[in-house]
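New to this. Help decode the following:
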Amino acid sequence: MHRPMSRSLLLVLHFIADLQLCYAVLPLNPSARGSECSCYRPTGNDAALFLNHQFFDFRSLANETFASNLTPPALIDDAQQGGFEPLTSPFFGKGLLGDFFFPASWNTSASANSPIAMVNSQQNIYLARDTSISPVHLTLRTNRLSRFQSASDLETVEPDFMHASIRIRARVTGSPGACAGIFTYHSDDQESDIEILTSDNDNIIRATNQPGMDPQGKVIPEATTQVVISAPGSEDNGSWTDWNDYQLDWLPGQSQWYVNGVSKLNKTYGVPTEASNIQLKMWSDGGSWTGNMSVGGVATLDIEWIDLVFNTSHDAPGAACTRVCTVDNIAYNAVPQVAGARIGATRVGLMSACALAVFWAGFVIL
């Protein structure tokens, strides 16, 4: 004999159904995680499509055991001119970051244009945090010795990037005479840069496409442009000593620079046309570009996260793109969202709405 469903059981079934509905809409309406996106579109570039996405969030390491006592490694000294120091953490030698980036250890000799020899050391690339409860960040360091400049260089393993949108949350601090570089590189004439000079005013960064000089050694005016930093959410000047979001878009025939989501510059001069790698550097050579850091000086480039969408020379984004996602103005950091989706609601807000809906469903049934 069929027994009528009790009111309590009916309430439970409605509760489960409402929860399932809630979780179905939690990722927004609609949205997609990276694995569901077939290509990515940056802000302001409707025609630009990238097939690949990588996000490196150093803040997420805060709860790792090793992060409870992160002490910066000792400064390089005069006896360490070879650049043979070991990695500061296994984190740089294996896993996602180690598969994508590697700490370089090449060096340069002094010359007329670069009067201070420069030696890159793995010891200058390390994880740090401001206090025991601050987020973890990546640091690239440079310091001046009496005989040479110790520097740092983090490069992508593959040199096969063919257009990219590079976004980095970073700050720069320290002595005058250093350059923090975020750039693509194929050769000295095929290079696109965000550069922060510690000898500049702290509200100025340099946006450059190489070459910067003609064969006669004269400066090419179109190559480098000074860009004023806008403070996040404000029209006031910012400072590169604070955390800012920097973005360089390398597109066919055009380079674009953004700071804190604000478009700062479009450039058609010197746009790279060859497959390149991506490099992060903190360096100085005593030349006219960086300036000459005083002996004992130190400067650092700190990075909270790196967000990349890109193509390689083997990619054909138009043919393979069936679901376009954006990595800009999204509700959840590093979770790409289907282009055109709503972003006003947050996960917490949706959960609150769901909880209210469940409550009222139960109230009506009872």
